[in-house]
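ok so heres the complex, two chains, lmk if somethin looks off
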Amino acid sequence: MNNNTEQHEMLLRQFYIEQGKLRGYIFSSTRDYHATEDILQEVSIAIVKDAATFDTSRPPLPWFMGIARNQIYRFYRKKARDANNVSFEAIGDCLPYFETFGTEPASSNELALKRCMSRLPGRQKKVMELRYMDDMNCSQIAHALGRSVQSIYSLLKRMKIELRKCVEYQLAGEQL
Amino acid sequence: MKKKVDHLQELASEYYIRELSKEEVKRLDEAIRADEPGIREAFTSAAKQEWAMHHVHHMDDHRIIHFEPSRKRMTRLRAIAAGITLLFSAGSLFLLHQYRAPHSISVASVSECYTLMGEAVTAVNNGRIRKIKKGSVLHSSDRLVVPRGCRLSFNYLNDDTKIQLADRTEIKVADRHGAKHIRLLNGKLTANVDKQPEGKPLRVITHDAEAVVLGTSFEMFSGEKTRLAVTSGRVRFDSASERLSHEVPAGSMIDSGSWNRRTFEIKTLTPIKEATANLKDRLQHIGVDSARNYVGLLRFDLSSLQNRIYEAYLALRVSKTGSDHQSEGKVTLYRIEDDENGKIKRTAISHYEGRVCTGMDLVFDIAPQDLTGGVDSLLIEMDGEGNEFWFSSSKGERPPQLLLKTATRQN
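and the predicted structre for the whole thing:
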């Protein structure tokens, strides 16, 4: 029992350390915010549940990624659609860049982003809300607003560039 | 060269906004694996920005697991670990502290929670698991898991909206600026929705469809496809992937995928005959037990039904008898009929494996084509080892019911 508890603790500690990478790995595969958080929760539960079966001589990250992959396959099966995502190998190559993916508490970056978004003109704000609050895809937004899908892609792309600039400007201002 | 790099970086950013073509995904994939200049940075930075945009919009939901490097976090994780270890290794009830997620909005209160012994309805929120019982308060972003054999009902706090969840159902509840949102991840829910404020309809979202409700009663099932059946009022049913939206009136049902609207009515039949083979007394019960060769027999008359059956369920209330409060085993539901040689032919049409407790409604799903439309005789038998199951007969607390969703005449 003690060994089991120690193993749980060790694995959860590792899970915490690797969480940014896992979140990036899952989000890049699913491109679905809610699914990413759900899968991350499932992974943490599976780690505890199956801790006893883990071979401690091996590094835990590939094991975590294996659990996450199964959940991602399940997600796509449930959605009954082709994954059409960048391969797990390619996403795996990007892992070092995902180190801090979404693990920081409400960062100044996020607060700046929130401020920038509040300054968007009404129509852009509407598109933003439909996309990120109501989780609609571009076709659904186009349908809801009676516009072409291409115009929504372009608008989102443009907005994201503007927001990135706005965030950089805000953060630079804070540092001055 | 620069043009190629720009194009790839653009693809990396668009990957998170639109569905790239297979060729575009292949090109991006190869570029990442070949570590083309700046592509991995562009790909990961686009991912981070897209995630941050979602996160900022959902920050108020407090749904993100922030595994902060603090002692408190590790203590919480250990608590989860301990709870889950108990759950899975001991196979008994796991008792976690009743936890109220900080700052999360209370949305509903549990009015009924039926669980099998050793099972628990649980809510997961912000990485924490808690056991749900009657009177528990549900919070925004709670993910509820109703295991096999259990059921749950809850009432929203700000009006008379009532939601019932069938067994094997998983949902997420959320409050979005006063609007009720439910993500039906799996299973079936029945809703009686009070009139909702203007501009704030209740939404039930599945993987491929969405129901938008202002005030009505309906049933929604999410499996491979989503089925919506409206019993009163009107519900808007939207496809998640296509530009399709349907107003579904009372007495109509619709499936995602086919999008054909059909009208229906619900019929409840009680048996014209019921008995337990090899048992003459205990008429209030129907018994099923392999050791004593008890076999349940039910006969329903469907000959008066003229229209097509869309869905059929046999609902049996588990009754208490003697000292038996809980049983476990595998039971199979057969349809029996005489074959051409006058011998009895049995066709397995549904089964259940697991535990049952007094008060539980054991529901067998029956494929409509397994009913003949005349007089159907059904037999319930326990396979191999198992403890006896007792169900209420028509003389007991609740008669066996064959619940049918059938087409109406105009279909």
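quick notes: Chain B is about 15% helix and 45% strand. thats all i got rn
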